[in-house]
Amino acid sequence: MAISKITLGIIVLLLGLIDKLSAVSNSCNFPAVFNFGDSNSDTGAISAAIGEVPPPNGVAFFGRSAGRHSDGRLIIDFITENLTLPYLTPYLDSVGANYRHGANFATGGSCIRPTLACFSQFHLGTQVSQFIHFKTRTLSLYNQTNGKTPFCKGVLARPKDFSKALYTLDIGQNDLAIGFQNMTEEQLKATIPAIIENFTIALKLLFKEGARFFSIHNTGPTGCLPYLLKAFPATPRDPYGCLKPLNNVAIEFNKQLKNKITELKKELPSSFFTYVNVYSAKYNLITKAKTLGFADPFDYCCVGAIGRGMGCGKTIFPNGTELYSSSCQNRKNFISWDGIHYTETANMLVANRILDGSISDPPLPTQKACKLTKK
Question: Which of the residues are catalytic?
Answer without folding.
Answer: 39, 338, 341
